[in-house]
Amino acid sequence: MNHLKLPVMIVFILSSLFTSAQIFRCGTELTDDQRTFELALTDSITSVFEINRTLHITLFIVKDASGETDVNMAEFSGALIGLNSAFGKIALNFGLSSVRYIDNYHFNDLRKNENESDMVAQNFMINTINVYLVSHLYDGNDQEVCGYTYYPAEGKDIIFLSKSCIAEEFLIEQFGHFFNLYHTHERGFAEELADGSNCVTAGDLCCDTPADPDLTGKVTPDCQYASLARDANNDYYTPSVFNYMSFSPGECHKCYFSSEQYIRILNCILLVKSHLW
Description:
Elements: H1 6-18, H2 32-40, E1 53-62, H3 73-86, E2 92-102, E3 109-111, H4 116-122, E4 129-134, E5 136-138, E6 147-149, E7 158-162, H5 168-178, H6 259-271
Parallel strand pairs: 1-2, 1-4, 3-5, 4-7
Antiparallel strand pairs: 6-7
């Protein structure tokens, strides 16, 4: 056997074994309006600081056909604690303003292109972050997902989450998108090179997050990156498996936003989401 080929074979086997780890995925979509928004965006601040602000969440829970909520509020409270921890570096806190119930069980299977707009039109609280919990959630491609939201260009203060995905990792990820963060493997602008030389205009637009080939199926259960993926220059990627906006498995306990990600969040609050209380 050619021993030089052994590492490649091992990585291939690991990738095959762990592809199924990410059963659900994020359904947040990068639109043309958001791309235009990015081109026109002029940051007002360029460094991390403590904003010392509390924003309020209105939580809507859709009941099933039997009138049950199927939600463990202790579980949601735990996810909220994790959310506040993630944004703690900039002293941005989230408080639960109210919990409201939606009796129309037809909304419990929520599809972005079908009944989402009707549900939001009937159930919405202005100037708060509206979070909706449903049993089954489908994105714009009619694929069942854990959660999705809208980027700032869409002007919608709404986040959707599947009841089976009430965990801090999914809540943090959607709040990241809500405040103008992209996945670390974003390809919608351009593919970021492994050396980061085009980081200003490619990937997630943050130069302090390593280029990411999409970690789905590329991370072992002990949270080791296991892939020989290369970029357009034939260079190997060296991504982080612990950034909140990556697709590493939940077992890896993602634990940080980068400084540039925090700066993007702060600018979004000041420039786009200042109406929230």
